[in-house]
TrEMBL record:
Annotated active site: 280 (nucleophile)
Class of enzymatic activity (EC top level): hydrolase
Family of this protein: Belongs to the neutral ceramidase family.
Protein name from the UniProt record: Neutral ceramidase
InterPro entries in the record: Ceramidase_alk, NEUT/ALK_ceramidase_N
Upper lineage: Eukaryota, Metazoa, Ecdysozoa, Arthropoda, Hexapoda
Species, as recorded: Cotesia congregata (Parasitoid wasp)
Cofactor(s), names only, from the UniProt record: Zn(2+)
GO biological process, one term: ceramide catabolic process
């Protein structure tokens, strides 16, 4: 089910090269742009994509979802990275975004240089992927979901395009502790000892951050990547939400944009998805629902009529979303030159 990333190979390569450059400052000058737009879509009646639970339909709003776009241009090649707060992005969403871009800008943007990545929130309306399996829980295509995501991505790229100025990129890394756990630690132990010996933890604790700063010193945005599932909001939630990473993005944007309404400021902060496969934000770990006992090795509560699920660190899912978001935000600030 891992279709979070949809990109041309060349675009991916340029981004990876950029990220692996360990220099404190990339000396080359770029033209850079950032933009944000709303992708929230229908907040009632539509089944959420993520937990694949047919009775988990929208019944209100917790946190709006956004698309955040970044343009990097070295005068020879232009590259667009978009992080969108949805469960995953399929081929057709990207194809439609590119078609709209080409109507507006000719061949400046194409499948070769537009990369769209989903944060993997489990609390946004589904039905937009045009794949049988992914659109099964919504009983087919939901035009309102599709249009909101496509238009939001498209508008965020237009805003990034219109904001392009000379600027610099900075890469930073840092550890963020107590914000993620392995959701299957027993399976992890099947990895050979020599391999496990290479790491201090059974999940990745490193956050990598790319900062966008205009030549005149104005902070334009950040993208960071930290391995954690946006599943602080659990499968009983019926409020559309960008979850922990979306909340963290809002904290960062508010910090720089001050009083601008959420999603309207110039500074754009994306907390994008990375190697989050087996990584949970529910740091209290799996426990039996009523007794609070440890679950069995197969994550069940044998002999008892109760579920085994992970939760925490807060007293409910709203508090957990906020606590994880603040940890991510604090982590991103520690490796940030924008203060
Ligand atoms: C979801 O979180 C709520 C608290 O916000 C809790 O009452 C409920 O048991 C949790 N359910 C699952 C399946 O995680």
């Amino acid at each position: 089910m891992d279709l979070r990333l949809s990109t041309g190979p060349k675009a991916l390569l340029s981004l990876l090269i950029l990220i692996t450059l360990e220099l404190p400052a990339v000396q080359m000058a770029y033209n850079i742009g950032t933009g944000i737009a709303d992708t929230t879509g229908p907040i009632a009646e539509i089944v959420f994509m993520g937990y694949a639970k047919i009775d988990q339909r929208g019944a209100g709003l917790h946190l709006r979802t956004f698309a955040r776009s970044y343009i990097i241009d070295d005068s020879e090649n232009r590259f667009v990275f978009v992080s969108v707060e949805s469960a995953m992005i399929g081929h057709d969403v990207r194809a439609m975004v590119i078609r709209k871009l080409q109507e507006k800008y000719g061949d400046l943007y194409s499948e070769k240089n537009v990369m769209i990545s989903a944060t993997h929130t489990h609390s946004s309306p589904g039905g937009y992927n045009l794949y049988m399996l992914f659109d099964l829980t919504t009983f087919g295509f939901i035009k309102q979901s599709f249009s909101a995501i496509v238009n939001g991505i498209f508008v965020s790229i237009i805003r990034a395009h219109d904001s392009v100025v000379p600027g610099k990129l900075f890469v930073g890394h840092g550890e963020v502790l107590d914000a993620n756990i392995n959701r299957s630690p027993m399976a992890y132990l099947n990895n050979p000892q020599f391999e496990r010996d290479k790491y201090n933890y059974d999940v990745d604790k490193t956050m990598t951050q790319l900062q966008f700063i205009a030549a005149d010193g104005r902070p334009m945005g950040v993208i960071n990547w930290f391995a954690v599932h946006p599943t602080s909001m659990n499968n009983t939630n019926r409020l559309v939400s960008s979850d922990n990473v979306g909340y963290a993005a809002v904290l960062f944007e508010k910090y720089i944009n001050k009083d601008a309404p959420i999603g309207k400021g110039d500074f754009v902060a994306a907390f994008a998805s990375s190697n989050l496969g087996d990584v949970s934000p529910n740091t209290r770990g799996p426990k039996c629902e009523f007794s609070g006992d440890e679950c069995s090795s197969s994550y069940t509560c044998p002999g008892k009529n109760e579920m085994c699920f992970a939760s925490g660190p807060g007293k409910n899912m709203f508090e957990s979303t906020s606590i994880i978001a603040h940890k991510l935000f604090d982590g991103s600030m520690r490796i940030c030159m924008i203060k």
